[in-house]
Input
Amino acid sequence: MNLTGLLSREWRALVRNRGAVLNPMAFLFLAVMLFAVGSPVSDNETARYGGAMLWLIVLLTNMLSLDSLFRRDFDNGVLEQVLSTAQAPFMVVLIRVLVQWLGTGLLITLLAPLLCLLLGLPSEAIFTSMLALLLGTPALSLLGAVGAAMTVGFSRGGILLGLLVLPLFLPVLVFGASAINQAVLHMDATAPLAWLAFISMLALSVGPLAATLGLKISLQLQ
Output
């Protein structure tokens, strides 16, 4: 199967399996609403912690979609066939991660203005929040794919997946929250945004290869 056909197949699978997108988005809005209801009364306090809470919720939302990233094709044997016949197996993994990001990271980025308003962030921080999410969420998908590949052979690998990927997600969480806080304080957020772009580029260079290796190990242990 060529890469264009594989991309078309993955996109159709995402469209058919709407729960893979709707369930994480439902969790996202439920978590944001709970924080909005239980946040401090002071607008200054809400704006101060809003950026950190936004990124923490985005991180957890992304984790919800990672466990099923490779599991469907792993269980029915399609994954082994695709990896063994593809000329560049890491491109197969990269396309799968791209489609996963379109249904999570990009969608969250487009919904960022509404999320920022619900979290009480000032309008001046909306553009920076969208830019931070656009630069940082690819790293969540790419690094998360490594953990998903290593735990795909376990019937209940959700907890193990969290233990593996949470330490990898911490730099994205720190710089993402810092970028939003800088915007809230009317300060230059270029440095944390640059770090987010660097982390995503680094994840792009090593993530697909590491995830491919993890899948091959999981297939051998099957």
